[in-house]
Amino acid sequence: MTVSPTSEAIAARLAALEDFPLLQGPRVRLRGPRDDDAPALFALFGDAQVMRHWSRPPMQDVAEARALIADIRKSMQERRLINWVIADGDDALIGSCTLFAFSAVHRRAELGYALHRAQWGRGIAREAATLALNWAFDHLGLHRCDAGIDPDNQASRALLHRLGFVTEGRQRESFFVGDRVTDSELLGLLASDWRGGR
Q1: Quick one: which H or E segment has residue 52?
Q2: How many domains is the chain partitioned into structurally?
Q3: Of the four, 31, 88, 144, 182, which is 20 to 30 A from 6 by CA?
Q4: Closest to 177 measured CA to CA, from 54, 25, 90, 75
Q5: Quick one: 32 exposed, middle or buried, by C-beta within 10 A (0-12, 13-18, 19+)?
Q6: CA-based torsion, 63, 65, 69, 75: positive or negative
Q7: Cβ of 177: how many Cβ atoms within 10 Å?
């Protein structure tokens, strides 16, 4: 069994980051957000279809996207989360992939992602999540990664299961989307599962 790094080592690796790690895949790259990403970010998070399973309503204007970019940068500086832009071969924003809720003590984080509707069904989210998980387990040294989804989000569940996540439970009425309350399906992936599945 591989012994994961100490909590101190994980915290030190997070603290040592100078900027968003740049992660390159065959078709996409994960990079930090730029100011000129705001219109594409608004197109992503302003799409009601994309947001129907999220814990917030769709954005109403591009100013919200600009504010989100500022918050993403601040959160990165504070090491609260690493929210990458998923960029295509032309370096245009086509989605978002995030590691958040870091716990160095417990050597875990949570994974989240969203993708422009035009990119659905092409394996892009899987490629982006794979880049983030490889970094989380191989570079950062996490022991576990969690994900929480709306139980009605069958596409996200299928993706997470393909990545090796296991459904571990369900929290009843745990988040609101507008006035609608929904459960949360909880999934987990161990570093040993990830390495064994590659």
Answers
A1: none
A2: 1
A3: 31
A4: 54
A5: middle
A6: positive
A7: 16
In a domain, 2, yes or no: no
What are the tens digits of pLDDT across the range 77-136? 999 999 999 999 999 999 999 999 999 999 999 999 999 999 999 999 999 999 999 999
Q: Which domain holds residue 37?
A: 7-197
Q: At residue 15, what is the residue type?
A: A
Q: How many CA atoms lie within 13 A of 151 on its CB side?
A: 15
What is the rounded distance in angstroms from the CA atom of residue 155 to the CA atom of residue 111? 15
- To which residue do tokens 């064994």 refer? 196
Copy the structure tokens of residue 18.
């100078």
Q: What is the pLDDT of residues 145-186, one digit of tens each?
A: 999 999 999 999 999 999 999 999 999 999 877 778 889 999
- Residue carrying the six token digits 């996540």: 165
- Is residue 1 assigned to a domain? no
The model scores a pTM over 0.70: yes
Task: Say if 141 falls within a structural domain.
Answer: yes
Q: SS3 for 121-181, per residue?
A: CCCHHHHHHHHHHHHHHHHHCCCEEEEEECCCCHHHHHHHHHHCCEEEEEEEEEEEECCEE
